[in-house]
Amino acid sequence: MFHHKKTARAPQLTHRQINRLMPFTGAPLFHALQLLATGDSARFHMPGHKGEPLFNSYAEIFAIDFTETYGTGNLYLGDGPIRDAEVAAARYFGADDCFFLTGGSTQGILAMLAAAVGAGGSVLLDRECHKSVCHACALLDITPHFISAPLIEPFAVSGALPVDAAERALLDHPEIRAVLLTSPTYYGVCRAIPAFADLCRAYGRLLLVDGAHGAHFPALGLPAPVAEGADMAVLSMHKTLPCLGQGAVLLAGAGADKRALRENTALFGTSSPSYPIMASIDLARAYTEGPGRAAYRRAAETCGDLRDYIARRTRFTPLAESDFPALDPCRLTVCTAGTDITGRRLADMLWSEYGVACEMADDRNAVFILTGADTGASVYRLRRGLRRLSGRRREEPLPAAAAPFPPAARVMPVRQAWFSHTGRVAPAAAEGLVCARPVTPYPPGVPLLWPGEKITRAHIELIRERWYNEIEEITVVISQQSGKGGHLL
Q: Would you call 376 helix, strand, or coil by DSSP?
């Protein structure tokens, strides 16, 4: 007699593992992937790991790492549980629609500029915009026009963008199709989005917002940019929420061309979007909509307490509401002006002596991001490090007010400069030449000079004064006069 041999079943996750993967409800994409991971199927499709725990550190990630197959949905077709997750995110952020991004806010900035401005168009930009906006202008042959904000002292960071300057730019350049703002900035300064939204509606223009650093705002009871009147906005979920790197969303208001946005996210994104990244976007939204809300409000309280502590107990100066009324409640900017060290030196000492890593530092400031994931022990280390390092510092007179980076004359389109024959020169040799790549201290990734702008002695002097240890060379357009500028590196 023959006995039928039972087919071996795929290894199943234990209940403990499942509970670790699903600590709360309300994340439709994650739940769908989890059901597939814990089901009985043979995976003869991508990815090559087939969901097997080949590497311990990735075991639970591999389990939910799928491709477009039965039950997973297709990001660029906008269907299945991915679409359910996008709809849930749109509702949470107060938007008409939402598109998941696995290429960070960069993918969203490219997509919304393509939809709102298009090839060969013109855009009005906050000069604090990220370098990805420059990349979009190079790819799409967009002409940028700029408005700048006065600096907040002694921090030397940009403050309120003047709405009247934006209106003058729209009148002077009627070809401008959209306005793009950065809010909050890397230092936590928020723009007056409702005022700019009113301006754009009055002139029939679209308002775009790079809100990459503000995905946590709704958890604090603050509106997302589209809820404040923007037509489109990008949020980097991974920057301030518990989300895998590269996870972001593109939000659309009522006036946005949603079909064009979906098509453009596909144009500028990979055709193999990461399902773990998308699932983490879904989870991060569900978390901050649910149990994470309290954690983020505690983080904001902690940030406020730290600002008070630094002001009372150290020689450093926190950026507070007394300096600017609209700040990210979870962003701590600590200024070293008036002491004998720079922000960069403070950051290096915090790391080498206390194991505290900041988000970024510049000549005057060190910047720290607080979230619902910070532990009391971590906050204590930061507080102790700042107090002890302050005790070893000596006070010095406050520096003179920082000179804003000088305006630059555009002598060539961004695209033409980018795709020209280029070479590299030392900053001292760049005077009179045309910039070919954004001159960008990173972070914060804000270009000082854009491709197509003429480099002057004033630009070089400020670069050498403030960013001498970061910017060692500048890429310039090579022309018949290139030999006059100095040695090409």
A: helix
Using DSSP, state whether 365 is helix, strand or coil. strand
Between the two ends of the chain, the Cα-to-Cα distance in Å is 82
Joined together, the tokens standing for residue 370 give 């607080």
- The model's pLDDT over 25-40, given as tens digits with 9 standing for 90+, comes to 589 999 999 888 888 8
| Residues β-bridged to residue 122 | 143, 176
Residue pair 237/284 in contact by the 8 Å Cβ criterion: yes
- Give the 3-state secondary structure percentages of the chain, helix then strand then coil, rounded to 5: 40, 15, 45
Residues 426-440 pLDDT 10s = 988 999 999 999 998
List strands edge to edge, sheet with 206-210. 97-101, 248-252, 232-235, 206-210, 176-182, 122-126, 143-147
State if pTM tops 0.85: yes
Percent of the chain with pLDDT over 90: 76
What are the helix (H) ranges across 290-369? 292-313, 343-354
Give exposure, 165-181, as e/b (b: 16+ Cβ within 10 Å). ebeebbeeeeebbbbbb
Give Cα separations from 120 to 240, 269, 344, 407 (angstroms): 34, 21, 40, 23
Closest CA to 292 of 225, 382, 378, 215: 215
Q: Which two tokens stand for residue 478?
A: 């090579």
For residues 93 and 219, give the distance between their C-alpha atoms in angstroms, rounded to a whole number: 10
> Cα-flanking dihedrals φ and ψ of residue 64, to 5°?
-110, 15
CA distance 378 to 484: 53
pLDDT digits (tens, 9 = 90+) for 346-395: 999 999 999 999 999 999 999 999 999 999 999 999 999 999 999 999 99
Mean per-residue pLDDT for 77-99? 95
Closest alpha carbon to 192 in 166, 174, 213: 166
